[in-house]
Amino acid sequence: MTTIATRSHHDVATHVAATIDGIFALIDGWRDLLEERLHPEARPGGYVMIAVSDTGVGMDAATQKRVFEPFFTTKPKGLGTGLGLSMVYGIVSQSGGHLSLYSEVNRGTAFKIYLPRTDEPAAAAEPVLLNARALRGSETILVVEDEDVVREFVRKVLTRQGYTTFALPDPIRAIEFAEQHRGAIQLLLTDVVLPNMSGRDMAVQVLERHPEPRVLYMSGYTDDAIVHHGVLEPGMWFLQKPFSADALAQRVREVLDAPVGVAAAPIGPSN
Questions:
Q1: Are the C-beta atoms of residues 33 and 112 closer than 8 Å to each other?
Q2: Is 101 helix (H, G, I), strand (E, B) or coil?
Q3: Residues 61, 142: one domain?
Q4: Helix or strand or coil: residue 219?
Q5: CB–CB of 252/137 below 8 Å?
Q6: Using CA atoms, how far apart are residues 65 and 74, in angstroms rounded to an integer?
Q7: Which residues span the domain enclosing 54?
Q8: Of these four, 113, 148, 172, 186, which has the most CB atoms within 10 Å of its CB?
């Protein structure tokens, strides 16, 4: 939903009077899907329907045909990876759901997500007991994250754990920091998608100036998805958003303490 809402925000950015709206509903989605004649393979039963619409620039027919392709983007270079909607499509399809798109140029766009409804209760997560002292450290960490709220959260958590933490909002400033910083940097913690440059490309330049830090990537996309689309390679350290303070502290300690040459183990979203 964040990806689709972000796409809508991009579409309305140049239209002062444009708006974004959303709907969440429990429906007999099978009939809707059949009526739209877009998903004749849809299974009978209840669905959860989530809709996001905007009154922005819309999309022409050619764009609509390619909008779910990996790496296809209408944004200027450096402002989008072209992975967002393709991952949404993949996640919805793997969940047994369906995704519908309707758009008109200069009228706006509407996305509808249909997910199979279930009445089964969610499984309770087993509590994880962590050794708070073992998760502390004194290393220097460079954090690069363009979202202010996330960046400040990460900085506070790591500082509280005893780390010397430098948190920057964009890759250019991070590279400049690495150029000027005379002390060691033990860990580079960066988002995968950043303004003007990917986290991976930025890490290459930081490591040219400071070859010692290990690199931990974070993203709202799953590690399988970004590896599948070639954004990261298997074995790279990864932390999926959203994550809790404990999950962040644990993952950072795992990366710093791992023997040289040990491949990263995947980690999913944490509460």
A1: no
A2: strand
A3: no
A4: strand
A5: yes
A6: 13
A7: 2-116
A8: 113
Residue tagged 């303490």 (tokens): 257
Pick from 137, 154, 150, 210: nearest CA to 180: 210
Residue 201 has pLDDT above 50, yes or no: yes
Nearest to 52 by CA among 14, 10, 82: 10
Closest CA to 21 of 58, 1, 51, 64: 51
Contacts of 225 (CB under 8 A, 6+ apart): 83, 87, 90, 91
Q: For residue 182, what is the domain's CATH number? A: 3.40.50.2300
In the chain, what percentage of residues exceed pLDDT 70? 69
More confident residue, 109 or 131: 109
Binning pLDDT at 50, 70 and 90, where does residue 189 land? very high
Residues 19 and 106 in one domain: yes
Q: What is the pTM of this model?
A: 0.61
